[in-house]
Amino acid sequence: MAQIAHQEGKIKSLQDPVTQYLPWLLSSDKAWRQVTVQNLLDMRTGVKSDETYNSPFSDVIQLGFTRNLMGRLKKLKVVPGSKEFVYKSVNTQLLGAIIESATGETLANYLQKNYGYQWVWRVMPPGKLMQRAEYGLFVA
């Protein structure tokens, strides 16, 4: 989807700093100025986020259960100049936010428009345990 947004000219260049689309990142860390859209695509951002899946207190698990995703994203920091590949789920969250910012559409609408599918996003109600795969992004 990022490549489609780029081809449409909505993401001007993959070398654009992420702060061109998400200026609020600067409030948590000025080093975001050196991170490009391409760095996000390559998972070479240096973002400080714990990707430990066996701890309920890790950043990746907390990110999955937060009710305030944007609030968590706005607090992210990076290691300046770090361009080593390290898989971090939060990079894809930021990429989604860039696509929404660049296109002015939600990811679901942009996906439907470009792929011709009707996608359904259902949010898990508070207090309900996921007993079936019924929440998330599905082809309808």
Integer count of domains? 2
The CATH C-level name of the largest domain is Mainly Alpha
What is the CATH topology descriptor of the largest domain? Methane Monooxygenase Hydroxylase, Chain G, domain 1
Radius of gyration: 16 Å
Separate helix tally:
6
- In CATH terms, what is the architecture of the largest domain? Up-down Bundle
Kindly state the mean pLDDT as a whole number?
83
Count the beta strands: 2
Q: Which word captures the global form?
A: globular
**Class by helix and strand content?**
mainly alpha
Beta percentage is 5-15%
Tell me roughly what share of residues is in helical segments.
25-40%
* Biggest sheet overview: 2 strands, antiparallel
The topology string of helices and strands comes to HHHHHHEE
Query: Uncertain regions: pLDDT < 50 for 5+ in a row?
Result: 127-140
User: In whole angstroms, how far apart are the ends?
Assistant: 19 Å
Strand order of the largest sheet: 1-2
Overview in brief:
This protein is mostly helical and 140 residues long.
How would you describe this structure in keywords?
2 strands; disordered C terminus; mainly alpha; Methane Monooxygenase Hydroxylase, Chain G, domain 1; about 35% helix; about 140 residues; single chain
Tell me the layout of helices and strands.
Blueprint: H1 2-7, H2 37-42, H3 59-65, H4 69-73, H5 89-103, H6 107-115, E1 119-122, E2 136-139
